[in-house]
């Protein structure tokens, strides 16, 4: 009997696939298209099994869709620019390009080793001039339309990266690359993209994504865009001509304002300090707060700090003077960077007022219940109610007062209704070398001049001395810096900042469709055929970075006439992480399982199958050596089963024996066929709807167990039935363990490879399963019953129970602490 040698089998079939170009996809209007994509990988070096889960899920779906008759586009490339490469190059004393290309070569070999079905003809690398030329082209088109602009601004500065960060790249007050490095505030000139111009479109077009994108991603994007409707009110500053502008969503509480809070980054502050008693001391505190501005994510938990400026503003409704304070929790990017402090009706204001002993006037009373008193309040009352102690507006409800007070502010000239957004323009300037040069030239005579299209790409120079000291190394390269003005021909200097690398990854999937076009970013006709992306796969951590930016780019392209669609991605799937020893796999934690090490020990198909089997793809997966050994043993058993019957089946096939009619089948033949078609029905459903590949693998294991329990199969089962069962088994295995499936298919006598095999159709009569009644309990008490097909696994039963509308309603707002599943009998859900 032959032995299954996974490494030999995998090498054999990878060579054949490459020779035949079986994964190459070209436009074919006669076939339905399917564009499947995993997020653009960063070439960081050695791939581990945490990385491989994402690609394995995508590859299983791509192979299934090909078997379904789709023309599948499944490309890959490299997000090759960025700080990690530059920092690694500084540390190692090598060029970023050399470090990056060595990593790409290594990662590419691993992807090939695992048999991922990419169309390698379409491979791109964002650090190549052939690609970043079009980054520059897009920037110039945005510059022409006023979407790209330069201004001096207070920005997020990472002292470790020594560069600017976009708001989205600040996580919990720290750099997204270094979670132990607090971000500082720094004022410099930089380039922005006017993403705010598309804020409404980004919100409105989410209607197209509902049902296809995870709701939590859409919620994160809505919150980040942060559309607020309210009132802008101008508070005159005592002794000054210019007023303070305050945006509030609760103008009904304005009679309860006991102070005005300014962000430490507010532009009026230096003027407010000038000539005041204690100016030097205030300046010291101000500088400290300005360097550690609290970010939006920290507002609820940050310690409240501030100081009184010694200046007052006039409440335009009440006429009373209110003190002007600086408060660390006021966001410079929200409204105007100034808020009215209403301690009785805002929790952050309440905490600040308690610390600094500010008054807490109550101006909103509940519609029902006891009257609120400032002296007895332990927290702010933030609900709507009825106005009190609010002059002529007392007695109005919140809604009535907001409408009337906004109208009165407009009529009297000190305010108006306004809509604001949390989203701010995207700062793309980076003071580092390894990125796309910004195509602008500064001329003493003509100012900032765009580089003409025929001079693109502006190439990164080689052999640059890297410092990482907060000034772009390009400024120290005379042959790059010094140039001629495109307008007047006089001496000029190039922009030395490079682009944020999220610029590169915001449109790369369009380039895949027409990867080698040297006349344009892509041919609109080619994009029209392939787009939108039918399935995009990647981590939820990119919800408010890459995914918002890519949606913005699509809308800009639409306005440029390059595309017709509003949204580039039809469906999005966010996979769970791979954990080991309870923590996410990472080099820093020392808990990696290397992809190549795993492949050498068990074979790539074993690794692929385990990552699909160990957990549903949206859940985190805890790596288990015992679990992967179990998958290895299963594939070995399957190989031996097929090998045991392959020769006799090939002989029978050559003799062209007739098929076996259902009514003439033996008991064993009926059991084999019934089990095979039941498994086929459920595996097909898993691929089409739920992507619960873990259930699919378990079903295939059950089918093998059934066949082994009926050995010897040839006793009371004719070759045609055995062949049908093993063929179905192999076809179902093909998307998940493709190398072994190809080998088994060949062993079973099929001359053509699986690339020409269609996904099988199950026989409804054979696939019908016995219906069982399953009891659903909550904390041991019967709460309902559901009818399901017999033989469902624990995961499926639990999912059916949790999705039952009655049970879902009972569990709402409950914390589930345990799940007990008795197959074919009951599901008991234990809640706290």
What does this structure look like?
By secondary structure, the protein is an alpha+beta fold. Helix content is 37%, strand content 18%. The chain is built from 25 helices and 34 strands. The strands form eleven sheets. It has a four-stranded parallel beta sheet with strand order 2-1-26-27, covered by helices on one side. A four-stranded antiparallel beta sheet has the order 6-5-9-19. Strand 5 and strand 6 form a beta hairpin. Helix 1 (6-20) packs across helix 22, helix 3 packs across helix 4 (96-113) and helix 18 crosses helix 21 (719-733). The protein is globular.
Average the pLDDT over all residues and give the rounded result.
91
Which runs of at least 5 residues are low in confidence (pLDDT < 50)? none
**Overall form:** globular
* Discrete helix count: 25
Distance from N terminus to C terminus (CA atoms, Å) equals: 55 Å
**What structural class is derived from the secondary structure elements?**
alpha+beta
Q: What percentage of residues falls in helices of 4 or more residues?
A: 25-40%
Strand order of the largest sheet: 2-1-26-27
Largest sheet: 4 strands, parallel
Strand tally: 34
How much beta, percentage-wise? 15-25%
Radius of gyration: 32 Å
């Amino acid at each position: 009997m032959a032995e299954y040698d996974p490494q030999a089998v995998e090498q054999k079939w990878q060579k054949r696939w490459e020779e035949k170009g079986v994964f190459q996809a070209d436009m074919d209007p006669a076939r339905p298209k399917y564009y499947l994509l995993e997020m653009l990988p960063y070439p960081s070096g050695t791939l581990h099994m945490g990385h491989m889960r994402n690609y394995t899920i995508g590859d299983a779906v791509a192979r299934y869709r090909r078997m379904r008759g789709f023309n599948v586009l499944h490309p890959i490339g490299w997000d090759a620019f960025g700080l990690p490469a530059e920092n690694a190059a500084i540390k190692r004393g090598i060029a970023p390009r050399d470090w990056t290309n060595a990593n790409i070569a290594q990662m590419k070999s691993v992807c090939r080793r695992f048999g991922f079905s990419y169309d390698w003809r379409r491979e791109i690398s964002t650090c190549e001039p052939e690609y970043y030329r079009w980054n520059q082209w897009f920037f110039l088109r945005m510059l022409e339309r006023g979407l790209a602009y330069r201004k001096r601004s207070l920005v997020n500065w990472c002292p470790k990266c020594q560069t600017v960060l976009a708001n989205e790249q600040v996580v919990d007050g720290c750099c997204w690359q270094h979670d132990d490095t607090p971000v500082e505030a720094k004022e410099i000139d930089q380039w922005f993209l006017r993403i705010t111009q598309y804020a409404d479109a980004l919100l409105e077009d989410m209607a197209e994504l509902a049902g296809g994108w995870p709701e939590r991603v859409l919620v994160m994007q809505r919150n980040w865009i942060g559309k607020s409707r309210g009132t802008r009110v101008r508070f005159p500053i005592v002794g000054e001509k210019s007023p303070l502008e305050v945006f509030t969503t609760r103008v009904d509480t304005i009679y309860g304002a006991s102070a005005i809070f300014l962000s430490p980054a507010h532009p009026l502050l230096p003027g407010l300090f000038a000539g005041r008693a204690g100016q030097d001391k205030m300046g010291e505190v101000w500088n400290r707060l300005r360097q550690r501005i609290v970010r939006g994510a920290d507002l609820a938990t940050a310690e409240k700090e501030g100081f009184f400026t010694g200046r007052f503003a006039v409440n335009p409704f009440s006429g009373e003077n209110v003190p002007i304070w600086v408060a660390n929790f006021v966001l410079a990017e929200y409204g105007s960077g100034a808020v009215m402090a209403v301690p009785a009706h805002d929790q952050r204001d309440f905490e600040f007022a308690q610390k600094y002993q500010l008054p807490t006037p109550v101006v909103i009373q509940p519609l029902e219940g006891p009257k609120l008193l400032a002296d007895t309040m332990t927290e702010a009352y933030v609900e709507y109610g009825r106005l009190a102690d609010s002059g002529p507006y007392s007695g109005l409800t919140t809604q009535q007062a907001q409408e009337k007070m906004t109208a009165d502010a407009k009529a009297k000239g000190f305010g108006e209704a306004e809509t604001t957004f949390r989203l701010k323009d995207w700062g793309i300037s980076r003071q580092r070398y390894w990125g796309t040069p910004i195509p602008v030239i500064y001329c003493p005579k003509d100012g900032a001049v765009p580089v003409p299209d025929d001079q693109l790409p502006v190439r990164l120079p080689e052999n640059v001395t890297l410092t990482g000291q907060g000034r772009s190394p390009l400024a120290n390269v005379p042959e790059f810096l010094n140039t001629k003005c495109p307008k007047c021909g006089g001496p000029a200097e190039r922009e030395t900042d490079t682009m944020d690398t999220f610029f590169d990854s915001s449109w790369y999937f369009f380039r895949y469709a027409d990867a080698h076009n040297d006349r344009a970013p892509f041919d609109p006709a080619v994009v029209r055929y392939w787009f939108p992306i039918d399935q995009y796969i990647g981590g939820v951590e990119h919800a408010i970075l890459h995914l918002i930016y890519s949606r913005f780019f699509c809308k800009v392209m639409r306005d440029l006439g390059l595309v017709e669609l509003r949204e580039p991605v039809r469906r999005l799937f966010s996979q769970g992480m791979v954990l080991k020893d309870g923590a996410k796999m990472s080099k820093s934690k020392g808990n990696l399982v290397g992809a190549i090490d795993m492949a050498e020990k068990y074979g790539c198909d074993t690794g692929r199958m385990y990552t699909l089997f160990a957990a549903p793809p949206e859940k985190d997966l805890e790596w288990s050596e015992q679990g992967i050994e179990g998958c290895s043993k299963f594939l070995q058993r399957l190989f031996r089963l097929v090998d045991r019957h392959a020769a006799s089946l090939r002989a029978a096939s050559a003799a062209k024996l007739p098929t076996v009619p259902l009514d003439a089948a033996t008991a064993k033949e009926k059991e084999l066929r019934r089990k095979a078609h039941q498994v086929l029905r459920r595996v097909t459903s898993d691929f089409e709807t739920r992507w619960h590949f873990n259930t699919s693998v378990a079903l295939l294991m059950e089918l093998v167990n059934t066949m082994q329990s009926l050995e010897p199969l040839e006793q009371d089962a004719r070759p045609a039935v055995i062949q049908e069962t093993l063929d179905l088994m192999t076809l179902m295995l093909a998307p998940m363990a493709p190398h072994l499936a190809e080998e088994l298919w060949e062993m079973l006598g099929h001359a053509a490879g699986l690339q020409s095999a269609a996904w099988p159709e199950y026989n409804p009569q054979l696939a019908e399963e016995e219906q069982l009644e399953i009891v659903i309990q909550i904390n041991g008490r019967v709460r309902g019953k559901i009818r399901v097909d017999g033989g469902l696994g624990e995961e499926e039963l639990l999912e059916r129970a949790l999705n039952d509308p009655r049970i879902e309603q009972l569990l709402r707002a409950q914390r589930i602490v345990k799940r007990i599943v008795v197959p074919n009998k009951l599901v008991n859900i234990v809640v706290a």
